Fold each of these.
Amino acid sequence: MKVVRVCGGFGNQLFQYAFYLAVKHKFNETTKLDIHDMASYELHNGYELERIFNLNESYCSTEEKLSVQSTKNIFTKFVKEIKKYTPFISRTYIKEKKHLHFSYQEVDLGTKDTSIYYRGSWQNPQYFNSIASEIREKLTFPEFTEPKSLALRQEISEYETVAVHIRRGDYLKHKALGGICDLPYYQNAIKEIEGLVEKPLFVIFSDDITWCRANIKVDNVRFVDWNSGEQSFQDMHLMSLCTHNIIANSSFSWWGAWLNANPNKIVISPDKWIHYTDAMGIVPNEWLKVSTSA
């Protein structure tokens, strides 16, 4: 049995789910999701994948969950394997090097017929590029019911649109991710896209639309301010329907662009994702990287 831990917000859950599908595809044996930690996760909207996508996946029970004791000084390499013998006959624990580590590593995912627990964010598309079509098929959003979203979807289908995702909120004081995608980045990104796309319609998504209205100065624009709480995922759905994307250094933003099925899409990403390390492995090579500096 293989078990993949799920924890974090919606974007993080999507990366872990994509990794889970890749593991399941690689070994073609029983693979389960561990969502136990979501019961105590108080940020965002809890475990969202099943509610949104109506998934039919297997979840490990408390008894099946690997009871591995870990401390900060145990894992000194990218992964550390700890062999245990209960509750499984043979067990391996595979953990990413550290939180917010986005570089792809040739991780030995173990062998068939060995019980393995995977704990990490797995935020690099190289882990699951080989099954991209299967992931997109699984991640089919439900139909819109909100009249404003229905109207915007129609408008998106009629114009060349650019989804712009601006994350503020918890990022304003975030030591690792905050202060990167500020106004200079969006000004640079908008200038870049305007040089590539003629008279686009900008569609702005944010957790601080008031700030966006005051600072994002473009001629043709729509501000999306009606999706919140358990309906926040509708922003990602709408972003994925736009022609092009300008993203923040956010997993939510990343998936809005990755799920965009337009084969000719232009995706603009910041040239810096995190403060203390090179984490640009999360950004696909074909996406454009724009300076975050003025």
Amino acid sequence: MREDRLMREVVQSAKQQIRKKYPFHSYELEEKVMKQVQKQTRMPKWSIVAWPIGIAVSALLFFHVANPNNFVSGIVDKIGTVQAPEKFEWIEPDKGFSHALQNGYPTLPSVKKEVNGYTVEIKDVMVDQLRITYTMLVSGEKVEQLVKEALATGKDLKQYPHLIFYQDDYSLSSDIDVNIRGGSGRAELKLINGSHYLVFTGNYNLSENKNEWDTMDSMETILKQPNPVLDVKFFKKPFHDRVIDEEAVLAEIPLPLPKDVATARKNIQPATMNKPQLGDQEVLQGLAVKQVQLFPTVMRVQVQAQTKAGYTLRNLINPRLVDDQGKEYTSLEPTSLQNRNSGTATAEDYYLDMIPSLYFDAIPEKLALKFDGATISTMTTGSFRLELHGKFPIEAPFGNKSSQILNAYYENHKLHVVLPGEAMTEETQLKVDGVGYDSEITQNGTFIQTYPVPQKEVYQIDTQRADHQEIRMDGLVPILDGK
């Protein structure tokens, strides 16, 4: 037993040394190693101890020379398991990230860099093609100076620690150089062992593709590069300008991405003869699951919907996947249904992101999409005439309701239409003489849209408004029916 214990300790030590230097993962090598370990069990125990040391060193040298970007993240131990961290150090992960971690999906190694008086460390990084979570710790001389200056100006950092992130004309922030579709981030000030730390945590959903107006690359584009890298930035974000120039970037940390990220994906193709159950309503006329894509931290359910003419599906109420054991996989986001903008005249394509993922699990015999109803919208149109020098405010028809136009004036070759601040939350589109707005401005509680049209006395205003309704039903769409 002492020899077995010694062997486990030696192998674990070898794995730890490799992980410190190389974040990459090779399932093929691990399988070969495991087979070799099983063959060697007939050897004397001290030979078994010596063999893992040799294979660890050989693998270290071979993969470093042959392909440093596809290096093994760990050598399997005697029973063939990969030692992954048991938990995240700085975050409370959702079911998607925690399930991936429990099943051996690795976090990337910590990266530390000292630059411009800051010590920046990136930890708790887990990433796949659709999601990323990370923690950035910023400390050092410059942080201590910021705290000292904040206290000197009377800021109560004990009660309001977030004030440290807001300076006179900028805020301190963290971001990643990839197109983000959703998620959230937070920033905290922590005192650890006598030193102050700015702690940024991010939990983001990544865009599948890049649109023409996106300034960042999509994850798909990044992963196609020979040596894919994600840059994590610590920067000063100006209050008056959304553009971040090079001087505003205080530190930039490159994170090399393992090749596994680009290949970690499986698919479930629906196999069912059963029809969807959509209740007695007549608006949502058809719903089908076209494919379920499995990634380590999330499942993407591709859905196609058919609605009555003039109606559009906006969301499903409480959607979840349910297997034959009654286990539920829930929606990642409250606004769960995302339109893929690829619909036809009779059908629209959507997707749902669900957690935890079946990526690591046996595919169940039965699987279905269930939901408690749907949100449907219709578009209502209207029109009116706007007199540039008429009396304001005026009541104007916005779809099936009315709203005010507080003022209108012509300036800098554009018509400015001043609306109440609550108009920002209205799903109403205005067109002036057939032209849509080109900019939006908030000012003193009002909302201003500008239209690049010629100056004249009277304008034709066309409105289009989305009106929503909820339709309750016990919805069920079969995916796998076990037949």
Amino acid sequence: MAKTEGGEAFFAQCRHTGKIRHLQGPPPWYALWTHSHCEQLVHDQLAVRGFEVFLPKLEIWSRRAGVKHRILKPMFPGYLFVRDELSEARYAELLGARGLVCVLGNGAGRLTPVPNQEIDAIRAVVQSNLPALPHPYLAAGQRVRITRGPLADVEGILVGRNAGKGLLVLSVQLFQRSVAVEVDCSLATAA
């Protein structure tokens, strides 16, 4: 069996139509991984080729030569999103973008779509013009440490993340009991 580089197996089941099948609605979004500082380069190349591309950016303060000014930086350095009905030809065209490393997938040669609600949430943050800062990824069930406030340096398990709030579960293993307290997720870092 031939070794695949990423994507060949994805299209093996679709060769008779040349398209990815979608039951309904718009085509899915995919995450693209780029070389360092190549997000805008990849974005511009794909936009010219007719792809729907989304590169979310944050406005941040920067100081150069002692002068402070606002600049736009990618919200997710090294990543951007593309939405397209990826036929085999379009996929090859996508991979031809200078600065692109790969399209993210599950490691079995299949592309993994990004849920529309995640893209919509990111768009809402960008369009709101509210201050936003990068934050380490915290998944429900992950062990975290609180960095500030009355619970500083307390460690527990983060559960039930919702609208910036989460439940920090503290457990006593000896007698198998737990207590949960609501915390601001911006105060939590991976333990």
Amino acid sequence: MLEAGQPAPDFNAVDQNGDPISLSQFRGQKVVLYFYPRDNTPGCTAQACDLRDNYERLQAEGYQVIGVSTDTEKKHQNFIAKYELPFPLIADTDNSVHELFGTWQLKKNYGKEYMGTVRTTFLIDEQGTITEVIKKVKTKEHTAQILAE
């Protein structure tokens, strides 16, 4: 997994509408790039809604918010519509963005091992450098973690 101080790798992906999205298009802006397991699950919904409810505060601090999961464009569209999310979600169906950032890892649950998303948030500065990696995400208090309140 990438660490603070490292350059954030650029990527070419698609958002919920199938439109191209890359990290380089946000150069000159701070970015909250958050990786989460799945749309419409309790923890992921709580995290997205916390970011939604605090979106204006994050923007006031200069942040653009981008979510990343392996869900399809259609699932992202439904998730955004249901919860009125104001930020883009990347449909990383081939895990390529996850692999660049090291968030696609072996996980264990109830004695079973499988590959999956490790919930992680990367804070990226205007020059494209990772300034912080939040690994122990508090889904209902994530904005406070980002703004270090």
